[in-house]
Amino acid sequence: MVLTSIRAVAWAVALSHGKLTLGDGGATATKGWEGPPRYPAALVAVGRGGGAEGLALAAVVAALPKTLGCVSFGVGRAMPKEGKVFGPNGADGTCGLRQNPYIASIRYAATKGFGRRADRDDEELGRPIVQGSRLALHLSPRGAEGRRTARFFVDKQEVAVFADIPDDGGDSDWVAGVTLSDNASVRLVPAEGE
Fold it and tell me: What is the pTM of this model?
């Protein structure tokens, strides 16, 4: 099954942090400074409601200097525009990938109240996120039982699966995207594959 219902071509300005530089028609998000605010988010809206929409989102890490902080890529209920990351030790109601660009061995794939990790029993993210990495998220349509599955990929390799994400079909806000570390830059690209 190909998830093509939603393919973001630009970050949603209203959902993204105001200090981020959004270039290339809004497709590139850059935190071109060091320090506060920490972890500004570049986000897209995730469609919900009565339809059984899926989401395919892909981004290339254009710049990831070795600085303090972390970069994250994920999906979840509406989260703050700054100060929180997706997944582990992040915003409630999110799942995703997180990595410290300064110490690449500090990387995780986990959930914080947004489904359960289905591909393994720990929070390990085996494949590192580096400059040039292609990150992808495939969020399944809402099934008849009101559940979704989120699959994450780094450089076309599946690195994490989160299942049993409850979706009551309501109209509460969900978002997907990235949080950026100092001087990092991420560009949305066409989502590919099944």
Answer: 0.93
Alpha-carbon gap, residue 3 to 8, rounded angstroms: 12
Distance separating alpha carbons of residues 133 and 107, to the nearest angstrom? 14
Give the Cα separation of 173 and 175 in Å (integer): 7
- Angstrom CA distances, 55 to 36, 78, 107, 123, 172, stand at 31, 16, 24, 23, 16
User: Which pLDDT tens digit goes with each residue over 91-110?
Assistant: 999 999 999 999 989 999 99
Q: What angle do CA 17, 18, 21 make, to 5 degrees?
A: 95
Confidence of residue 4 (pLDDT cuts 50, 70, 90): very low
- State the residue for tokens 């599946």: 158
Mean residue pLDDT across the chain: 89
Q: Which amino acid is at 93?
A: G
Q: Using CB atoms within 10 A of its CB, is residue 103 exposed (0-12), middle (13-18) or buried (19+)?
A: exposed
Q: How far is 110 from 70, CA to CA, in rounded Å?
A: 15
